[in-house]
Write a structure and sequence with these properties.
The complex is a heterodimer of chains A (about 280) and B (about 300). By secondary structure, chain A is mainly α. Chain A contains ten helices and no strands. Chain A has one domain: MetI-like fold, CATH 1.10.3720.10. In chain A, helix 9 runs antiparallel to helix 10. By secondary structure, chain B is mainly alpha-helical. Classes of the chains: A mainly alpha (about 280), B mainly alpha (about 300). Chains A and B meet through helix 4, helix 5, helix 8 and helix 10 of A and helix 1, helix 6, helix 7, helix 10 and helix 11 of B.
Chain lengths: ~280, ~300
């Protein structure tokens, strides 16, 4: 029974582990380079659909190996997603911590700004920021980070509001600790757990957002392979070469599913109160 | 009650002005708009004249107030690519986007709420497990990929539905189904958890003990009380739907504001990007206000407060 309950998280962990390993070792395990063309073998179907085992997932319109591109694409998609979370999370935490801890006009100002950003649909905000910054991997990380911090700010503010009136904070203050020390040494460690849970879910959202922007052709430059850009170029051949869209989409789907399952598990294990919010 | 409504209205106005400010700043960060309007080799005096004619030589706060006033009066500028008023371009396409979002939301509500109720009533059974697995999958699937797969299956292989465009009700089916998955999974899970909570309450047990029929108990007593979080989430998901419409419209060549925005980003047509973002955000802000007021109407405790 215990094993049955743990099956989803075991499956999610294994899937993510395999994807991360493939991304890290793409250069070693991929049959070819991501942009290596073999024009005589263009649009070869996957091996199980009548193709050859030397190109297990088939080739694209320029004869590039789909499996190799998937593996190299994983590298960019996951790196961008993880970096975006790594940048946006601390920004949101500091804003939420300041708003909740200081209250008053600081809280009103920061939360009103958060509300303003939340009123702009993420994809449209991302599109507007991309229009300003232009395409590119670094710009994509900045864009995703700009859109992502509000999630943490809201959560951490709520947690901090509860914590700041708790007895242990009063006791530390009475003992003469400064505000900065109370905030970063005593309140912050107590908001880390829910933040980690939310950040786990956010990785999946960021991977999808990056893929969406690249799919729309405004994400990373064409020469950089990501799952989203593979879908963008593959959709033209949907009628004749389904594998060009099926596999990158499945890769995104599997990653997000695994990340969400892991997030669910972490939430239930670390902070079940979040069930209604995340 | 009146104080609550007035406070919410004030908050809505400040958020709307704030959204306009963010978009205004983004436009100015994107570089000199004059450079996009005149040829690259235009003499400096032509650039200066254009800048003066557009009021871009004025201080930024003054420019913002002018922008705000113009936006409030329906003037969102002129498209650099189409050379037509942005408000007119949006006005022509917005009804189609709203139709798509409304159809997707209706589909999600029509399927998500019954699925959540059945799942809660049949807790732990195969029906419950299958519904929850589908809900989790629905939340994880990228809608543009699902849209492509639906095209491949229903339009290319089976030839049941048209691939692209608009005009007939059949054109709406695939875009609405793809877009509805954004809300569907989340809604089904939420209805299930809300219903499970409500079904354990004393008043539900009392209703059953009185001999009322199960259907009556579920719909009149349980669902009515589980409705508050459901209405909130449905309203808040509107932003997701309008955002998702951008991608869905692009895949299906659905002629709404989403396609307009995507083309504008591609062509660096800043006034259109700015206009679409502002209009969609204002719709979201208005929807939020409506949800809040509906929440007050549904929850008498707030009215008494």
């Amino acid at each position: 029974m215990r094993l049955r309950r743990r099956l989803p998280v075991l499956g999610a962990g294994t899937t993510l582990g395999v994807i991360i390993l493939c991304a890290a070792l793409a250069g070693q395990v991929a049959p070819t380079g991501p942009n290596e063309q073999e024009i005589t073998r263009r649009l070869t179907p996957p091996a199980f659909a009548g193709g050859s085992w030397s190109r297990p997932l088939g080739t694209d319109e320029l004869g590039r190996d789909v499996l190799s591109r998937l593996l190299h694409g994983a590298r960019v998609s996951l790196t961008v997603g993880l970096l975006a979370v790594a940048v946006s999370c601390p920004i949101g935490v500091v804003i939420g911590l300041s708003a909740g801890f200081f209250g008053g006009w600081v809280d009103r100002m920061l939360m009103r700004f958060t509300d303003i950003q939340l009123a702009i649909p993420t994809i449209l905000l991302a599109m507007a920021v991309v229009t300003v910054l232009g395409p590119g991997v670094t710009n994509m990380v900045i864009t995703l980070s700009v859109t992502g911090w509000t999630l943490y700010a809201r959560l951490v503010r709520g947690e901090t509001l509860v914590l700041r009136s708790r007895e242990f904070v009063e006791a530390i203050r009475a003992a003469g600790a400064g505000e900065a020390r109370i905030m970063f040494r005593h309140v912050l460690p107590n908001v880390i757990t829910p933040t980690i849970v939310v950040a786990t879910f956010a990785v999946g959202s960021m991977v999808v957002l990056e893929a969406t922007l690249s799919f729309l052709g405004i994400g990373v430059p064409l020469r950089v392979v990501t799952w989203g850009s593979m879908l963008n170029s593959g959709r033209t051949y949907l009628q004749s070469a389904w594998w060009l869209t099926a596999f990158p989409g499945l890769a995104i789907f599997a990653t997000v599913l695994a990340v969400n399952a892991l997030g669910d598990y972490m939430r239930d294990a670390l902070d079940p109160r979040l069930r209604d919010r995340v | 009650m009146l104080v609550h409504v007035l406070r919410r209205l004030w908050s809505t106005v400040t958020v709307a002005v704030g959204v306009a400010a963010v978009i205004f700043v983004l436009l100015h960060l994107s570089g000199d708009p004059v450079a996009l309007l005149v040829p690259a080799d235009a003499p400096p005096e032509v650039m200066e004249d254009t800048r003066r004619a557009l009021g871009l030589d004025r201080p930024l706060p003054e420019q913002f107030l002018v922008y705000l006033w113009r936006a409030a009066t329906g003037d969102l500028g002129t498209s650099l690519r189409h050379n037509r008023p942005v408000a007119q371009l949006i006005g022509e396409r917005l009804p189609r986007t709203m139709l798509l979002a409304a159809a997707a939301l209706a589909l999600a509500v029509a399927l998500g709420i019954p699925a959540g109720i059945v799942s809660a009533l049949r807790r732990g059974t195969v029906v419950d497990r299958v519904t929850m697995v589908l809900s989790v999958a629905g939340q994880a699937v990228p809608i543009f990929w699902l849209a492509l797969m639906l095209i491949w299956l229903f339009a290319v292989r089976l030839e049941w539905l048209p691939v692209f465009g608009s005009g007939t009700p059949t054109h709406l089916v695939l875009p609405a189904v793809s877009l509805s998955t954004i809300v569907l999974g989340r809604l089904a899970r939420l209805v299930r958890s809300s219903m499970l909570e409500v079904l354990e309450q004393d008043y539900v047990r009392t209703a059953r003990a009185k001999g009322l029929g199960e259907g009556y108990v579920v719909l009149r007593h349980a669902l009515k009380n589980a409705a508050i979080p459901i209405v909130t989430v449905v309203g808040l998901q509107l932003a997701q739907l309008l955002g998702g419409a951008v991608v869905t419209e692009t895949v299906f060549a659905w002629p709404g504001v989403g396609v307009l925005a995507a083309e504008a980003v591609f062509n660096r047509d800043f006034p259109v990007v700015q206009g679409v973002t502002l209009v969609i955000s204002l719709i979201f802000v208005a929807a939020n206000l409506a949800v809040d007021l509906a929440y007050v109407a549904l929850n008498p405790r707030i009215r008494l407060d």
